[in-house]
Amino acid sequence: MQIKSPKYIYDFFNGVIQGENVKHYKKLYKEIDFIYKTRDNQLSPDTVMYEVYSFNEGGSNILLWGLTVIYPITINGECNMTRGHFHEDREEPEIYFGCSGEGLLLYLDSQGKIFAEKVFKGSLHYIHGNYAHRLVNTGDDTLRVGACWREAAGHDYKSIDEKPFPNRVYKKDGKIDIA
Ligand code: 6PG
Ligand code: NI
């Protein structure tokens, strides 16, 4: 039996994926400042709020692997978070798994009903296709969350822009406050 070296380095715990066909982008404050309740003029517009890695093996009916790295930044007391989205195809689920740091995974259905799960190293989250999902970094360290989903899922950001998550997460004197 031939033992092959891995095509990818899946270093989820340290927050890196390396290899061929790895896509990587940084989300800057100026690109997503509208998702937070208020603007923070002290924060440079070029601050990296979070980074997303993903890759696929190729072929059809592809499962993508990903990693989201969210920095411990507060925006006038509001915890840093991802933009949040529904999948374009509401039948496509996704799995998230906590790699490091502490956070919340917010779920929102089309009726506006919201709930959250705690995210931590080793936590596993099954996101049904009909839920929008957003990660919030509630800790003092970087939050790293791995993900697996089908490429066919797509991203629907428009529905969240039109009907945003009804709750926000703040940190006051080290305590989490959901408003
Ligand atoms: C996906 C995943 C995940 C997500 C990132 C960034 O469906 O692709 O849920 O990779 O895109 O965590 O979050 P936003 O896409 O909401 O900015
Ligand atoms: Ni998703």
TrEMBL record:
Record Pfam families: GPI
Pathway: Carbohydrate degradation; glycolysis; D-glyceraldehyde 3-phosphate and glycerone phosphate from D-glucose: step 2/4
Gene3D superfamilies assigned to the protein according to its UniProt record, in alphabetical order: Jelly Rolls (2.60.120.10)
One GO CC annotation: cytoplasm
Its EC number(s): 5.3.1.9
BP term (GO), one: gluconeogenesis
Coiled-coil regions, chain positions: none
Protein name: glucose-6-phosphate isomerase
